[in-house]
Write the C-alpha cells for this entry.
Amino acid sequence: MRIRPIDLVDVLVYLVVLGVFIQLFPAVLSETFLLALLTAVLLKVVLEIVLLVKKRIVGRIRSGRPLPIRIVNVVALLLVLPGSKFLVLELVAFAFGDAVQLGGFWAVTALIVALMLSRGGMRRLLTTTE
C-alpha cells in the first residue's frame, strides 16, 4: 500500500475540519494537537474503507441482478450508513480513550459530512488548477 500525495492532502483537510469542530462544538475535543493529527489519520483510514464498502454495495444495487438481491443490498447500505458513524465513535474511543471525543452520533455525522464535503472541494480545487 502506497501513500499518495492526495492522501496527505486529505489528512491535512481532515485535521483542519476536526480543529474547527473542536473549537466550535464543546462535545468534540482533543487534548493535544498530536492526538488531533492521529485522529485525522484514523478518520482517513476508516472513511476510505467505508467509502470502498459503500461503492461496492451501490455497484451491486445498480447491476442487473435480480430484485431480491438488490433489496438485500439496499438494506445492507441502510445498515452501513449509520453503522459507519458508530464504528468511527468506537474506534476513536478504543484508540484514544477519553483524550479524544467526537461527541455523539449526530456530532460525528455532521463531522463526517463536513469531512467529505471538504475533501471533495479540495480534490475539485486541485484538479481544476492542474
